[in-house]
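Quick illustration, no need to memorize.
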Amino acid sequence: TGGLTPGGVFIIAARPSVGKSAFLGKMVLGAATKGHHCGIISLEMQDEQISARLAALTTEIDFWKIYRNRMQDQQEANRFYKVMNDQLSRLPISISDTSQVNIGDIKAKVSRLKQKGKLDVLYIDYLGLIETEGGNKNYNREQEVAKMSRGLKLIAMQFQIPIVLLCQLNRASETTGDKKPKLHNLRESGSIEQDADGVMFIHRDSMCGILTNSDGNSTEGEADIIIAKWRNGELTEYKIGFDGPKMKFYEFEDTQYPIHTKEFEAFV
Protein backbone atom coordinates (compact mmCIF):
# COMPACT_ATOMS: atom_id res chain seq x y z
CA THR A 1 0.00 0.00 0.00
CA GLY A 2 2.90 2.35 0.60
CA GLY A 3 1.72 3.05 4.14
CA LEU A 4 -0.42 5.78 5.68
CA THR A 5 0.18 9.11 3.93
CA PRO A 6 -0.23 12.46 5.76
CA GLY A 7 -3.52 14.17 4.98
CA GLY A 8 -5.32 10.91 4.25
CA VAL A 9 -8.26 9.17 5.91
CA PHE A 10 -8.05 5.38 6.01
CA ILE A 11 -11.02 3.19 6.86
CA ILE A 12 -10.89 -0.18 8.61
CA ALA A 13 -14.32 -1.77 8.42
CA ALA A 14 -15.86 -5.04 9.54
CA ARG A 15 -18.95 -6.53 11.09
CA PRO A 16 -19.18 -6.44 14.93
CA SER A 17 -16.79 -8.69 16.91
CA VAL A 18 -14.64 -9.54 13.89
CA GLY A 19 -11.57 -7.77 15.26
CA LYS A 20 -11.48 -4.09 14.23
CA SER A 21 -10.19 -2.86 17.58
CA ALA A 22 -7.65 -5.70 17.76
CA PHE A 23 -6.34 -4.84 14.31
CA LEU A 24 -6.15 -1.17 15.27
CA GLY A 25 -4.11 -2.16 18.32
CA LYS A 26 -1.65 -4.00 16.10
CA MET A 27 -1.32 -0.92 13.88
CA VAL A 28 -0.78 1.39 16.87
CA LEU A 29 1.95 -0.82 18.33
CA GLY A 30 3.66 -1.12 14.96
CA ALA A 31 3.71 2.65 14.45
CA ALA A 32 4.63 3.55 18.03
CA THR A 33 7.47 1.02 18.11
CA LYS A 34 8.97 2.81 15.11
CA GLY A 35 8.86 6.09 17.06
CA HIS A 36 5.70 7.63 15.59
CA HIS A 37 3.50 9.54 18.05
CA CYS A 38 0.09 7.84 18.03
CA GLY A 39 -3.18 9.32 19.27
CA ILE A 40 -6.16 7.08 20.05
CA ILE A 41 -9.69 8.43 20.46
CA SER A 42 -11.79 5.57 21.77
CA LEU A 43 -15.53 6.08 21.97
CA GLU A 44 -16.26 2.45 22.83
CA MET A 45 -13.64 1.29 25.34
CA GLN A 46 -11.99 2.84 28.41
CA ASP A 47 -8.25 3.37 28.45
CA GLU A 48 -7.80 0.40 30.82
CA GLN A 49 -9.25 -1.94 28.20
CA ILE A 50 -7.13 -0.44 25.44
CA SER A 51 -4.00 -0.72 27.58
CA ALA A 52 -4.81 -4.35 28.40
CA ARG A 53 -5.25 -5.15 24.70
CA LEU A 54 -1.91 -3.53 23.85
CA ALA A 55 -0.31 -5.40 26.76
CA ALA A 56 -1.67 -8.72 25.50
CA LEU A 57 -0.11 -8.05 22.09
CA THR A 58 3.22 -7.07 23.62
CA THR A 59 3.53 -9.74 26.33
CA GLU A 60 1.89 -12.71 24.52
CA ILE A 61 -0.32 -13.20 27.59
CA ASP A 62 -4.05 -13.77 27.09
CA PHE A 63 -6.09 -10.57 27.28
CA TRP A 64 -8.55 -11.88 29.89
CA LYS A 65 -5.68 -12.75 32.28
CA ILE A 66 -4.35 -9.21 32.07
CA TYR A 67 -7.70 -7.43 32.25
CA ARG A 68 -8.94 -9.53 35.18
CA ASN A 69 -5.54 -9.72 36.88
CA ARG A 70 -5.53 -13.52 36.76
CA MET A 71 -1.92 -14.34 35.92
CA GLN A 72 -1.07 -18.01 35.82
CA ASP A 73 1.87 -17.72 38.22
CA GLN A 74 4.42 -15.26 39.57
CA GLN A 75 6.74 -15.88 36.63
CA GLU A 76 4.02 -14.81 34.19
CA ALA A 77 3.23 -11.76 36.34
CA ASN A 78 6.90 -10.77 36.44
CA ARG A 79 7.13 -11.06 32.66
CA PHE A 80 4.05 -8.85 32.31
CA TYR A 81 5.39 -6.09 34.59
CA LYS A 82 8.82 -6.19 32.97
CA VAL A 83 7.40 -5.75 29.48
CA MET A 84 5.03 -3.02 30.65
CA ASN A 85 7.81 -1.06 32.38
CA ASP A 86 10.54 -1.59 29.80
CA GLN A 87 8.51 -1.40 26.57
CA LEU A 88 4.85 -0.44 26.56
CA SER A 89 4.98 2.45 29.06
CA ARG A 90 7.74 4.09 27.01
CA LEU A 91 5.86 4.08 23.70
CA PRO A 92 4.60 7.46 22.38
CA ILE A 93 0.87 6.66 22.66
CA SER A 94 -1.81 9.12 23.86
CA ILE A 95 -5.29 7.79 24.68
CA SER A 96 -8.55 9.70 25.05
CA ASP A 97 -11.60 7.69 26.15
CA THR A 98 -14.13 10.52 26.47
CA SER A 99 -17.44 8.99 25.42
CA GLN A 100 -19.14 12.05 23.89
CA VAL A 101 -17.00 13.60 21.17
CA ASN A 102 -17.90 15.52 18.01
CA ILE A 103 -15.77 16.70 15.09
CA GLY A 104 -15.00 20.00 16.85
CA ASP A 105 -13.74 18.12 19.92
CA ILE A 106 -11.56 15.89 17.76
CA LYS A 107 -10.05 18.91 16.02
CA ALA A 108 -9.27 20.52 19.38
CA LYS A 109 -7.56 17.36 20.66
CA VAL A 110 -5.52 17.07 17.47
CA SER A 111 -4.50 20.73 17.68
CA ARG A 112 -3.30 20.38 21.29
CA LEU A 113 -1.23 17.27 20.59
CA LYS A 114 0.19 18.77 17.40
CA GLN A 115 1.31 21.89 19.23
CA LYS A 116 3.16 19.68 21.71
CA GLY A 117 4.75 17.69 18.87
CA LYS A 118 3.04 14.51 20.10
CA LEU A 119 0.89 13.45 17.15
CA ASP A 120 1.94 11.80 13.89
CA VAL A 121 -1.11 9.60 13.29
CA LEU A 122 -4.63 9.53 14.79
CA TYR A 123 -6.78 6.43 15.35
CA ILE A 124 -10.53 6.72 16.02
CA ASP A 125 -12.72 3.88 17.32
CA TYR A 126 -15.27 4.30 15.79
CA LEU A 127 -17.22 6.53 13.33
CA GLY A 128 -20.71 5.46 14.39
CA LEU A 129 -20.19 6.78 17.93
CA ILE A 130 -19.01 10.28 17.01
CA GLU A 131 -21.61 12.78 18.22
CA THR A 132 -23.48 15.04 15.80
CA GLU A 133 -22.57 18.72 15.94
CA GLY A 134 -24.67 20.46 18.57
CA GLY A 135 -26.29 17.16 19.48
CA ASN A 136 -29.10 17.75 16.97
CA LYS A 137 -30.81 14.40 16.48
CA ASN A 138 -33.30 15.69 13.91
CA TYR A 139 -30.90 15.70 10.98
CA ASN A 140 -30.84 12.87 8.48
CA ARG A 141 -28.25 10.37 9.71
CA GLU A 142 -26.70 9.94 6.27
CA GLN A 143 -26.18 13.70 6.00
CA GLU A 144 -24.62 13.82 9.46
CA VAL A 145 -22.22 10.98 8.65
CA ALA A 146 -21.29 12.72 5.41
CA LYS A 147 -20.44 15.89 7.40
CA MET A 148 -18.36 13.86 9.86
CA SER A 149 -16.51 12.09 7.07
CA ARG A 150 -15.70 15.37 5.33
CA GLY A 151 -14.76 16.99 8.64
CA LEU A 152 -12.23 14.26 9.41
CA LYS A 153 -10.73 14.58 5.94
CA LEU A 154 -10.29 18.34 6.46
CA ILE A 155 -8.62 17.74 9.86
CA ALA A 156 -6.22 15.24 8.28
CA MET A 157 -5.33 17.73 5.53
CA GLN A 158 -5.03 20.76 7.83
CA PHE A 159 -2.71 19.07 10.32
CA GLN A 160 -1.02 16.81 7.76
CA ILE A 161 -1.57 13.59 9.64
CA PRO A 162 -3.12 10.29 8.56
CA ILE A 163 -6.38 9.42 10.33
CA VAL A 164 -7.32 5.76 10.73
CA LEU A 165 -11.06 5.38 11.29
CA LEU A 166 -12.93 2.25 12.29
CA CYS A 167 -16.37 1.72 10.71
CA GLN A 168 -19.17 -0.81 10.86
CA LEU A 169 -20.52 -2.76 7.89
CA ASN A 170 -24.20 -3.36 7.23
CA ARG A 171 -25.70 -6.84 7.37
CA ALA A 172 -26.01 -7.07 3.59
CA SER A 173 -22.34 -8.08 3.45
CA GLU A 174 -23.31 -11.44 4.97
CA THR A 175 -25.82 -12.28 2.23
CA THR A 176 -23.34 -12.57 -0.67
CA GLY A 177 -21.99 -15.90 -1.87
CA ASP A 178 -18.55 -15.68 -0.27
CA LYS A 179 -19.88 -13.32 2.46
CA LYS A 180 -16.95 -10.97 1.89
CA PRO A 181 -17.71 -7.23 2.18
CA LYS A 182 -17.73 -4.71 -0.65
CA LEU A 183 -17.46 -0.91 -0.63
CA HIS A 184 -21.23 -0.44 -0.78
CA ASN A 185 -21.53 -2.36 2.51
CA LEU A 186 -20.07 0.58 4.47
CA ARG A 187 -22.76 1.57 6.92
CA GLU A 188 -24.80 4.79 6.99
CA SER A 189 -23.33 6.85 4.14
CA GLY A 190 -21.76 6.46 0.71
CA SER A 191 -19.66 9.55 1.39
CA ILE A 192 -17.33 7.47 3.59
CA GLU A 193 -15.91 5.58 0.63
CA GLN A 194 -15.74 8.80 -1.42
CA ASP A 195 -13.75 10.78 1.17
CA ALA A 196 -11.50 7.91 2.22
CA ASP A 197 -8.04 7.54 0.73
CA GLY A 198 -7.99 3.88 1.67
CA VAL A 199 -10.55 1.26 2.70
CA MET A 200 -9.60 -2.05 4.29
CA PHE A 201 -12.04 -4.78 5.26
CA ILE A 202 -11.46 -7.44 7.90
CA HIS A 203 -13.31 -10.66 7.18
CA ARG A 204 -13.37 -13.92 9.14
CA ASP A 205 -15.13 -16.91 7.63
CA SER A 206 -15.67 -18.48 11.05
CA MET A 207 -17.84 -15.50 12.08
CA CYS A 208 -20.08 -16.04 9.04
CA GLY A 209 -20.72 -19.74 9.57
CA ILE A 210 -18.01 -20.96 7.16
CA LEU A 211 -16.14 -23.32 9.48
CA THR A 212 -13.72 -25.02 7.07
CA ASN A 213 -11.59 -23.67 4.24
CA SER A 214 -10.94 -25.14 0.80
CA ASP A 215 -8.29 -27.47 2.31
CA GLY A 216 -10.74 -28.80 4.87
CA ASN A 217 -8.99 -27.06 7.76
CA SER A 218 -10.74 -24.99 10.43
CA THR A 219 -11.18 -21.29 9.69
CA GLU A 220 -11.22 -20.36 13.40
CA GLY A 221 -7.68 -18.93 13.34
CA GLU A 222 -7.89 -17.28 9.90
CA ALA A 223 -8.78 -13.81 8.68
CA ASP A 224 -8.85 -12.00 5.35
CA ILE A 225 -7.57 -8.44 5.00
CA ILE A 226 -9.20 -6.99 1.90
CA ILE A 227 -7.82 -3.74 0.48
CA ALA A 228 -10.86 -2.49 -1.44
CA LYS A 229 -9.66 1.07 -2.10
CA TRP A 230 -6.24 2.67 -1.96
CA ARG A 231 -5.22 5.84 -3.75
CA ASN A 232 -1.94 5.22 -5.58
CA GLY A 233 -1.85 1.68 -4.24
CA GLU A 234 -2.71 -1.85 -5.26
CA LEU A 235 -6.02 -3.53 -4.47
CA THR A 236 -5.42 -6.99 -3.13
CA GLU A 237 -6.26 -9.47 -0.40
CA TYR A 238 -4.25 -11.15 2.37
CA LYS A 239 -4.88 -14.34 4.31
CA ILE A 240 -3.52 -13.88 7.84
CA GLY A 241 -3.89 -15.49 11.24
CA PHE A 242 -5.91 -14.40 14.26
CA ASP A 243 -5.29 -15.39 17.88
CA GLY A 244 -8.47 -14.44 19.74
CA PRO A 245 -7.26 -14.80 23.37
CA LYS A 246 -4.34 -12.46 22.68
CA MET A 247 -6.35 -10.12 20.40
CA LYS A 248 -3.57 -10.64 17.87
CA PHE A 249 -3.42 -10.68 14.08
CA TYR A 250 -0.28 -12.18 12.57
CA GLU A 251 1.13 -13.36 9.26
CA PHE A 252 1.36 -17.02 8.31
CA GLU A 253 4.86 -18.25 7.55
CA ASP A 254 3.65 -19.62 4.23
CA THR A 255 1.72 -16.47 3.25
CA GLN A 256 -0.16 -16.73 -0.03
CA TYR A 257 1.20 -13.32 -1.01
CA PRO A 258 4.96 -13.39 -0.24
CA ILE A 259 5.59 -10.56 -2.69
CA HIS A 260 3.66 -8.21 -0.36
CA THR A 261 5.05 -9.45 2.96
CA LYS A 262 7.53 -6.62 3.49
CA GLU A 263 5.01 -3.88 2.71
CA PHE A 264 2.38 -5.43 4.98
CA GLU A 265 4.77 -5.68 7.93
CA ALA A 266 5.72 -2.03 7.51
CA PHE A 267 2.08 -1.02 7.38
CA VAL A 268 0.94 -2.74 10.57
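The chain has a mean pLDDT of 84.
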